[in-house]
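User: Design a sequence. Structure:
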């Protein structure tokens, strides 16, 4: 199944009156997968961006890409780059280790990026979390924004937990278990529902009116 905004909005609005109000407030869904570059480049970018502000991460990522012809990352080329060059562009020792582990596992086909489209979400999470520095949340973002998988619910995401708290009038931040329970009604379009909760938070007031 691929993203189908019309079918998703119809289902979500009928299945959950609270989310229907969120959808009306936010407006049209603009979620589209990012298809540029390769899966390897997308995962390496995710590692570089971890725990950094967008501007700082963007600068380091751009310098990292500049090490390679046409700014294209290849596993073998990353493995052949010495640590000094990677440190010089701003990568920490820890992230160098993560990027190298990703490159090594992809190069050895332990992480079969060419076959990801044929794997289930659970299988992709299991394979990619074998890479150092790539956890469940990172893979869920990859599933949603790179592969366009329609039914991903990042239950550990603070934005989703906060969005549910505000939209559903909870006294405290939604727990992962509450996220999963409330989100059951959204299947098979939990990716779209998550996008709306993030955008609802972006409105700034957290009010449905």
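Assistant: Done.
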């Amino acid at each position: 199944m691929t993203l189908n905004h019309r079918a998703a909005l119809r289902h979500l609005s009928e299945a959950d009156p609270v989310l229907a109000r969120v959808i009306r407030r936010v407006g049209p869904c603009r979620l589209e997968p990012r298809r540029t570059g390769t899966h390897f480049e997308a995962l390496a970018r995710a590692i570089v961006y971890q725990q950094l502000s967008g501007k700082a991460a963007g600068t380091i990522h751009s310098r990292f890409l500049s090490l390679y012809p046409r700014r294209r990352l290849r596993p073998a080329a990353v493995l052949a780059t010495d640590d000094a060059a990677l440190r010089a562009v701003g990568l920490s020792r820890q992230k160098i280790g993560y990027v190298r582990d990703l490159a090594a596992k992809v190069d050895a086909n332990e992480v079969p990026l060419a076959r990801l489209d044929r794997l289930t979400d659970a299988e992709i999470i299991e394979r990619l979390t074998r890479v150092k520095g790539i956890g469940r949340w990172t893979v869920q973002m990859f599933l949603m924004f790179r592969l366009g998988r329609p039914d991903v619910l990042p239950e550990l995401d603070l934005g989703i937990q906060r969005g549910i708290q505000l939209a559903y009038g909870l006294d405290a931040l939604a727990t992962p278990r509450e996220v999963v329970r409330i989100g059951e009604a959204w299947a098979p379009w939990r990716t779209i529902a998550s996008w709306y909760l993030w955008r609802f938070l972006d409105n700034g007031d957290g009010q449905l009116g």
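The chain has two domains: 5-32+152-202, 39-145. The first helix runs from residue 5 to 15.
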